[in-house]
Amino acid sequence: MKLNYKIAGVDIDAADAAVKKIAELSKQTHRDGVLGGIGHFGAFFSLDVSRYKNPVLVSSVDGVGTKIKIACALGQYRGIGRDLVNHCVNDVMCSGAEPLYFLDYLALGKLDGKAVLELATGLVEACKENGCALIGGETAEMPDIYQPGEFDIAGTLVGVVERDAIIDGSRIVTGDVLLGLPSTGLHTNGYTLARRIIELSQDSGYHKYYDELGCTIGEALLAEHRSYYPIVRALKDHPGLHGIAHITGGGILGNTRRILPDGLDIDVDWDSWQWPAIFTLLQQLGDVEIDEMRRVFNLGVGLVLVVAEEQAAEIVRILERLGEKTLTVGRVVEETSEPKAG
What we know:
This protein is 34% helix and 24% strand. By secondary structure, the chain is α+β, with helices and mostly antiparallel strands. It has two domains: 161 residues, CATH 3.30.1330.10; 158 residues, PurM-like C-terminal domain (Phosphoribosyl-aminoimidazole Synthetase, Chain A, domain 2), CATH 3.90.650. The chain has a five-stranded antiparallel sheet with strand order 10-12-7-13-11. The protein has a four-stranded mixed sheet with strand order 3-6-4-5, with helices on one face. Strands 1-2 form a two-stranded antiparallel ribbon. The longest helix has 18 residues.
């Protein structure tokens, strides 16, 4: 038998067709600065430097972890594309940056046109909503690495911020207030533990309906990773905003501590809000220690704003006008010599 690439497991024609569909969809996201479209060996973006005094590019690369496994099990892929963009946007805008453009990398065992189109649709939707352009990417068919139906996806987002407007936490001081913004669920972290809990539970499964969730546990776990960019865009120039932490792997403690100046720590009031039902259910099903829950999951707080104590009430009022529920989850304190929890 004469071998060719298709027999070996890679269908070039199908891949080319998928790329053409993605390129067409991506045109919906084009904004000022985009030069050309998907298809060249590199993607082009012309930054209008006349708009800035001293522009700094801010970049982030990330994935969505094993949430993909649940999406595959339920055959729902669109949300994964949205999750990826929103996650990267949240990371970049923690510095106060404006998203500019996005690129994705999709690796899979065997190209499934429906799944790829759903993923691309999700990417495009989220890019449009966040004002960034999808200008390039790569689709790699690797049957020797991934089984049919398996894939992984990652993305890179680039944004821009004025150098003297960067929000990096350097202005955080003792007494600053931690304002938490609600998450929509697990977002894109903690899924290896969540999946293990469900797999080991004799009384659960992705298709099981729970009254406290109002849906199946699989649907609850696929809840979209929300974008906080509209909120940050409205607040980023407020003098009382000292720092922003995106609560991903590591929980509130691990992620908020990343932006603290030396000598400072945070005191989280863990009783100041109620966990969303999905976290309570996972803890019960898996008999997970509370400290482990705090370390792995966001527990309903997807973003923490570190704000000046004297301006916290004003910032809360701004958030309320934006329709945002705010949780006061703790304060900045001086670091002690005692071992840090979490």
